[in-house]
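### Sample
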Amino acid sequence: MKSTRLIAFSLFSGLVVLSANVTAQVKKCTDKNGKVTYTQAVCPQATAKDKTIMAYTPVSNAAPAAGRDLYAENQAFNQRQAQRNRIEAVQNSNREAIAAFEKAVNRPLAPGEVRRTTLTIK
């Protein structure tokens, strides 16, 4: 079983290397005794089965389809990342302001002292 797969893989690998103008097929032929052979031609009539297991048809010479615009995608990513960084900086600043406010509010007052604490959120 492993040798059959190895042969099939080897044949397929060979087909991939072929030039773009070549079309190839691999046929699996099983004779009356159950012996399996692989060929690129039509199986002999003495075989019990004729099955195409691989076919290779080259890609056409037509112009390739328009690809992704990686520059534009990269620019959009950089803009989103910069926005995330700005938001994160504001959030960190707000957390620090809230922590300072809570610290000031929770500080005990001296007798006669008036609390004047403001909180500025961005």
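The first strand starts at residue 24 and ends at 31. This sample (DUF4124 domain-containing protein) is used throughout the tutorial notebook.
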